[in-house]
Here is the input.
Amino acid sequence: MISLILPFHSDIERLKQTLKTLKEKQSQYNITEILLCHNGMGLEPTKSEELKSYLFTGVKLLHVDAQGIGAGYKLGIQNATEPVCVLSASDLPFGFTDIESYDKLKQKPLFAIGSKAHKNSKIKNYGVMRTIASYAFWLLRALFLGWRTPKDSQGSILINTSLAKKLITKSSYDNYFFTVELITLAQREGIWAVEVPVILENHSGESSVSILRDSWILARNVIVFSKKIRNKK
Here is the structure.
């Protein structure tokens, strides 16, 4: 049984398409709970009513004033009721291939990542710059957070719900760095993420992530965060 957590801020149109897909396929992938986690300023009443018209059984619309994908994930985890949480995105960039790969594991780990860096992953039109940035970010994490850090920290996360609820009590990031923080907090509990293969479809032009701006923010967060956890030892 899965709680699928989808943070969003303003991408209503993309989310509506995702809901159409989920309505058709949720039972196939044992997704019994879908948590739409709006973060930031409240939705305009017209947009809120429009989105509500797309909801169906098992879907909950939640809101938190804090802005950022991490804030959305934490809101979803706090409200999740199923044994496993899947932290994804409003456009389901991997389709359901992350869940399919997780289901194939004979022994289900407490923490898994739908990893673009996995040798069996299939990535379309990802771009040289993003590939280089991803590798550089992994190298930085490895240097500051340990060499067992996963190659991909920005993929979907499949995590035991009880563990997730415990970890977020120690979380301080609401932005994209939340996933790195979650991975590291789990490692400090002796729990290592298992990377599983995914298929990434072409979503060019849809991402709000800036390679230059957000890579710098993430890099700075790694350095600050590594100092913080060292001081807690």
